[in-house]
Amino acid sequence: MKRKILWVCFMMAGICSATAQTTTTSFNVNGIKVIFKPTQKKVINIRIYFRGGVTNYKPEQAGIENLALQAATSCGTKKYTGVALRDTAERYGVQLSAESAYDYGYIQLNCISMYFNQGWDLFSEAINNPVFDEAEVNLLKTRAITGSQRRGSDPDAQLFALQMKAAFENTPYATDPLGTEQTLAGLSAGDLKNYYKTLFNKNKLFIVAVGNLDKQDLYQKILYAFDNFPSSPYTADNPKAPAWTDNKLVTEQKNLKANYVGAVMPAPEFTSADYVPFRLAFAGLGGNLYRTLRTQYHLSYDPWDNVLDYKMPVAMLGASTNNPKQVMLAMMRELKYVQNNGYSEEWLQHLKNIYVAGSYFDEQSSAAVTQSLGRAEILGNWQYADDLPQLVNMVTVDQMNKAINFYITGLRWAYLGNLDAIEGFRPPVY
Amino acid sequence: MFLLLALSSLCLKAQEVQKLTDNIFAKQLPNGLQMLVVEDHSVPLVTLDITFKAGAINQTRADQGLIGLYGQMMMRGNKNYVTASDFGYRAGALGILGSNRVTSEENTTYYFTLPKENFADGLAYMSSAVRFPLLNPVDLEKEKQTASDMVKQKSTLATFALNVEMDRQLWGDQACRKNALGDSSVINGATVEMMDAIKSKYFNPDNALLVVGGDVDHEDAFKQVEAVFGDWQTPAGNDQGQWIAPEFKPLSQPKYFIVASELARTPVLDIHWQGPDTRKDVSATYAADIFSYILNQNSSRLRTALIQSGLAASVSIGYLTLKHTGPISLIVSPNPAKVKECIEEVNRQLALMDNDDYITDAEIATAKRVMQIRDVREEDVTSTFVRTLSFWWSSATLDYYLTYLDNLNKVSRADLKQYVDTYIKNQPYCEGLLIDPGLRAEIKADDFFRPANK
User: Fold this and answer.
1) Which of A41, A43, A142 is nearest residue B310 as measured by Cβ atoms?
2) Domains identified in chain B, total number
3) Is residue B137 a contact partner of residue B192, using CB atoms and an 8 Å limit?
């Protein structure tokens, strides 16, 4: 029986981490916070983060930050036309990209160290001098709308959207940071240009740099390129996650060969002392669910679990299946099992083993490290990312048992597929 | 020069350690198992990847999908970890992550990463799975269900039906040799005896490459591999090494088809040709990669004509390097309001592709440099780089990979023109259109989606 519960989902690392052997430091370049991790890797990754995410704009502007940041990196600058910018980047294998999510946006440089100077020139030029050429922006917008339509054909993306809807209706997260066909269609080049200016405040942004870089050279480059950014007081919004105890079900009819089931539940904040114990506990739950749904009863090919590292955190379970009722019952059963029976020392050790390997695994990629450090800084402090391995090693079984019971006080459900398959069925009540 | 010398002696001194690059070493065990060690001391991890030359190419209609099913059975329990739960439990104890098993066109590969202190235990764990699976009949029935679920899950994507139909049109009655997923009726009829036969035929040391990548010393790693896998023997009388796959039948004329699906929120145009392979026209495979890269550049004539004009949201051309007829693909996401115009422009572009001014010298130079940069990027993450090596081993040779950049640099404008003329322009192709039924009727797609002179 003991072995039955000792199952960890070894398909992926439980928690992302920046590093287990830290040399990360933070310094200030005339008002701009810089987080720097020197490595011997041949690939350099630098991101400039903008705080705020979906709280920066109105719901009817959904997608504006994502589109504005992408336009900066691809639609031309004072020095380069859009074509010249993209051509120059390609010539040196420089990847400029941008994205906006629920809590932040960023512009990213990824290049090999041999062409860092060329990459930095493009990166700083794109950030400082985008021109938002109308023709280029319109093409970008068309592609963004097509991308939105394409996501509408992806059941995994649709299930996630339903889960977010179940969890966050009437909160800032009800806004999709990638926008909808309708909101994207209403955005003009002028809108993007005006919005882009509002992001630049030394107190609202920070930079994360990882790679084979000289600290002094990096300092000088940042000072030279970005010292002209304005500076004014900034306090980030800290929306509180809605607390729920109900068992709401959100559905969408779709004729698919497999149906998609998802559960969403509350989780602790990233800076909470309960965060790491909860992450390990939830990874254990996910592992058990994988065993039950795929290995034991073959109810699903691809069950998954995830804790979203957002300012308003939630935990999710999901699976595609032909037996949605059975999967929902199994999800509830496995959750109740770990809540009632708890974890063991041996199980915890296995989860720690996976996590430690996972932290090193992520360290192989400069981009993964900047992402972890940047996300931790947004959610509280970059040092949490550095400290996570130590925090994991300190977790006790008692902490896990308390965390998995304390935070999960309700369960909401999402269902995508043939509604006949769940007709008359009431999802299990937490 | 050193690299070439090392390669020239690779086959002659296989059972001695060969230094292929500064950090890649090769050796072969007496039982035929080929080994590579990639030293990377940046993080204290080791990735193990064992790859067998057993994929869709080895299948017939009668056994399509069974190699993949056998791969699933390797994860269901073995003589040391009897049940799938035992197997998973041991993975947790060893700190294994990123574990996966994949069957594709020309290989089956199984890999995972674990802390370096568990390297020896990881080798034993892998050995248990690949050498001693129990092939339990109850588990086989469960894995048949998993295989069925996998197909159902994939079929929820709009492009799945397009891909299936493309394979059928492009490869004809040999499509089973390109489809690792197989056929559900064949899979449902699988028996333990069939699984055992597949194991004996393909999953042997003389048909395998084991790559160890990470924080290890190559001499020590080779010793540890030999200690675990040295007594593994290919069954007597196995002649798989002499097996020759039947050639794919060339297309004789263009083929067109429409896949109407309500799942297709945006249309997709997919054109495929039968391309070169690493046995019969290796030089064309290098030209194919350079040509694809050039056309995928932002300011290429192809992208300018389709993307910058607003006719398409995306366009991508590619070639999959294989030992047995790699496909060339051109995939376009037409603007739903301009599907007809987009297809007409694609046809115009195809007719221009062998013109002298279709690509510039600067584009060729950039492509060669960027392919080298891509190589640097691939080598930077060892846990995925080991899979790159095993892919090239099964779809070409290790020599092919190790001389890849040198050969790319030799590609000339004339080589690119020859590649286009031999495999693309005026060559038979299959062209499919994935489209929503409503849009199909609205734009009268059947009226214009028909053979043109390519």
Assistant:
1) A142
2) 2
3) yes
